[in-house]
Design brief:
0% helix; 15-stranded antiparallel β-sheet; 183 residues
Length: 183
């Protein structure tokens, strides 16, 4: 009698060729591809634990990199989409994502709390860049900017409040206050 192979099985496999060469997957397989809950260790040091569909990351998951980088959220056909978290050497981001980049509304923390250069940005993003309305605060310097952003810089209507309580309002161009304004 011909017995049919199981529809899915749990197994470990190290890829020997193709774009996954050197990667090791342990988890659920279906029709020769990762499909279900599993863990992939890539040859570049990244590790992804989560859900797979037809060989691609699909569903909730968490990827960690060799330098402490983290990508966490929901994957759709191999791409990080929706709400999630990104951590890299300069800080962390939580919020909307599109193709693994900040998109929509999100919060970005940079630097170490209470060290110079530490900042917090809460606002709009487009494909990884600050774009639209946002608020940025320099934690140690105490300066806060509230206003429009374009291509990652202060651009358009906005205001700055310093730690001394001095308030500037006007139009920003290339990150600098220009033209008439209010102080």
């Amino acid at each position: 009698e011909n017995a049919l192979p199981p529809a899915s099985t749990h197994a470990s496999y190290t890829f020997t060729n193709g774009c996954l060469r050197g990667a090791r997957y342990e988890g659920i397989w279906s029709q020769g591809k990762p499909h279900g809950k599993g863990r992939m260790e890539y040859s570049d040091g990244w590790v992804h634990e989560g859900w797979w569909r037809a060989g691609e990351r699909h569903g909730r998951g968490r990827a960690t990199g060799p330098a402490g980088n983290v990508q966490e959220g929901s994957w759709v056909r191999g791409r990080l989409e929706g709400r999630g978290k990104l951590v890299d050497e300069s800080g962390e981001y939580e919020g909307g994502l599109e193709e693994g980049r900040p998109h929509g509304h999100g919060i970005r923390r940079e630097g170490k709390f209470m060290e110079s250069g530490a900042s917090l940005y809460i606002g709009d993003w487009v494909r990884g860049v600050r774009q639209g309305y946002g608020v940025q605060e320099d934690i140690m310097g105490g300066e806060k900017y509230m206003g429009d952003w374009e291509c990652g810089v202060r651009q358009g209507k906005g205001c700055v409040v310093t730690s001394d309580g001095i308030y500037y309002q006007g139009t920003f161009l290339g990150g600098k206050l220009t033209g008439p304004g209010l102080m």
